[in-house]
Amino acid sequence: MSIVITSLIVYVIVFHVWAMVLEMFLWTKPLGRKTFGLSKEEAETSKTLAANQGLYNGFLAAGLVLSFLVENPETAFTLKVFFLACVALAGLFGGVTAKMSILFMQGLPAMIALALLVLVKA
Questions:
Q1: CB 23 within 8 A of CB 51
Q2: Are 33 and 40 in contact (CB under 8 A)?
Q3: Quick one: which of 15, 35, 88, 111 has the fewest CB in 10 Å?
Q4: Using CA atoms, how far apart are residues 82 and 90, in angstroms rounded to an integer?
C-alpha cells in the first residue's frame, strides 16, 4: 500500500511542478497557449495571473516534497495530509468552476492518496 500512496503523491508533485512550469514560464509560448487553449492576446493579458497561479502550484509541490524529507513520521504524515487536502480542494474547486478535467487530473489523485494515507494510518 505504501508504494501506491507514494506513487500517487509523486504523481501529484510532478503534476504541480509541470503546472508551475507551464504557468510561470511557458504561458505565452506555443506549448502553454495550446495546453490552455489561449490566443496570443489572451495569454499576454493573463500572464501575470498565470505566473501567480503557477507559484502556488510550486508551493503545493514543495510542501509534498518536504513531507518526504522530514525525519519525524508524525510531521511527515501531517504535511502529507495538509498538502494533499489543499490539492484535493483546489482540484475540486477547479473542476466545478473552470474545467471538469481539473478534478480528474489534479483532484482525484490527491483525494485517493489522502484517503489511502488516512486509512493506512487508522
A1: yes
A2: yes
A3: 35
A4: 12
Give tens-digit pLDDT for 29-87. Answer: 999 999 999 999 999 999 999 999 999 999 999 999 999 999 999 999 999 999 999 99
Q: What does the block give as the cell for 88?
A: 484535493
- What span, in angstroms and rounded, lies between the C-alpha atoms of 122 and 117? 9
* 3-state percent helix, strand, coil for the chain, nearest multiple of 5: 90, 0, 10
Range of the domain at 94: 2-121
For cell 487536502, what's the residue?
85
- Phi/psi for 27 (5° steps) reads -55, -45
C-alpha–C-alpha distance, residues 9 and 33, integer Å: 27
* CA–CA distance, 9 with 5 (Å, rounded to integer): 6
Domain count within the chain: 1
Q: Is the separation of the CB atoms in 88 and 107 below 8 Å?
A: yes
Question: For the whole model, what pTM was predicted?
Answer: 0.93
* Amino acid identity at 106: Q
Distance of CA 120 to the CA centre of its chain: 22
